[in-house]
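Trying the structure run again after the queue cleared.
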Amino acid sequence: MTRTLKTLAATAALAAALAVGACSSNDTTSGHQMPGGAMTAMGSGPATASAGGSAAVHNQADITFASSMVPHHQQAIEMADMALTQASSAEVKNLATQIKAAQDPEIATMTGWLTAWGAAPMPSGDHDMGGTSMDGMMSAQAMVALKDASGTAFDRMWLQLMIKHHEGAVAMAKTHLAQGQSPDAKALAQAVIDGQTKEITTMTTLLKTPL
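Done. Tokens:
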């Protein structure tokens, strides 16, 4: 009788241990209920919590800003390249060099953010809405006209179009300051506002003087 009781006790203990192990396994894989109905799982949580740097905190507004600003900057650099070979004014060429120096690194930075966020830049053709520009982007027709211009006519057209282009970038950056979440992206937006506003002033002054 004593041996039978010992056997039953051992069996019961083994069954209890197996039950505890099963519960622990379920908690690990499927998560457990937290107060208020929230569910968490082992090793999980907000996607931003485990990411470092700029990927740590961001929202859709940050993605929209970076994905649209990259092709916007790329077009500005394309226009700057035209000025370096077609402009007759030294001031215009200096501005073109300045724009490239500022915007090339910003493209690299924003592309890095988009990679970390699992996103990609907007295709450059998306800005062209039936020949009209959006956020200061030049239409294909305007880019062709600029490419075909030369001399002082090119200089004046370039300044006029770049002012419009910069104004679009400043508007986009101001929108992002109001809606974005990433501190790094908002800092870049402020840099765009500060730098391009100064360049707009410079270009506006140049248009008032003979080139």
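The helical segments are 2-30, 60-86, 90-116, 140-148, 151-179, 183-207. Worth checking whether this holds up in the mutant runs.
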